[in-house]
Amino acid sequence: MASSLRSLVTDDSRYQKCFQLFLERSSEHQSMRDFIHNMLPDILGSIGNGKSHLNMIGVGSGAGEIDLEMISELRLKHPEVTVDNEVVEPSGTQLQSYRALVSQKPGLDHVKFSWNQMTATEFEEHWRAKAVTKKADFIHMIQMLYYVKDPGATINFFRSLLDNNGKLLIVLVSGASGWGKLWRRYRTHLCHTEISQCVTAGDITALLDRQGVSYQSYELPSQMEITECFAEGDEKGELLLDFLTEVLDFSKTAPPELRAGVLELLRHPDCSVESGGKVVFNNNLGVIVVD
Ligand code: CQA
Predict the structure, then answer these.
(1) Hey, what domains does the chain have and what are their CATH numbers?
(2) Which residue has the higher pLDDT, 252 or 4?
(3) What is the mean pLDDT of residues 238-263?
(4) Which end of the chain is more exposed for a tag (fewer CB within 10 A), N or C?
(5) 146 lines ligand 1 (CB under 6 A)
(6) Is the pTM of this model over 0.90?
(7) What residues have CB less than 8 Å from 5, skipping those under 6 apart?
């Protein structure tokens, strides 16, 4: 059963407001930065096999902040290489921010950026139509597999682009996170399966296990402060609730029992820790590295 509520994804300007507030209230980007600086260097060290040129693909790169940090670590591991970076991102606004960031940041002369304003599925169609034979050394898809029709098929396509030593990095919310708990209970009420999937890192590792594909996985601690969700009528609380449920104007449009049930689950110990008057939602991330 698909949700009869309207998906937040259908209103990009509201989505961006929710997303900016989410970034302020959560440690999502910091958790990714910690991973990039502590764990990623070893992963990047194992790619390339001594080549002087590396191909990279960022799928759903957003405004590029995280991509550029990965490129810096790549440079530290492989100081002499040049990099071809294909950026795949459907939002023109995000791509513009990414381009602006690149033009402001020194030390990127060794990187050639190719801008693909399109979805992952469109990129796949283009790649197949052009019969490109270029192979990739490093591909990342961070918090984006929710937005493809068939996450398994998308992973298989991008795996097929990997060179021998290549690595595919996937980041999704962890199955043990508050998101995983929320979706287990309310998937049918909240999920707009024609737009987005309630998929966790645990779902993907189960799928890779069934296919016999080998991978390494990591759990990254991350939190999101959601206290304002429980102050009735609080504007920021409503933005956070919309983001959590991915429903546009959740408080105003959800049936009262659903709203009450979701609010109760959000502050339940399965999803959150309450202390000092603050409610902190478990936003743990799952990272999967496929080789
Ligand atoms: C649209 C859809 C999704 C977006 C977006 C625009 C998005 C970020 C920015 N703009 Cl139309 N998605 C996103 C970003 C971070 C993130 C998640 C999604 O962590 C995953 N959510 C779980 C579904 C929240 C943790």
Answers:
(1) 27-225+283-290 (3.40.50.150)
(2) 252
(3) 97
(4) N
(5) yes
(6) yes
(7) 189, 190, 247, 248, 250, 253, 254
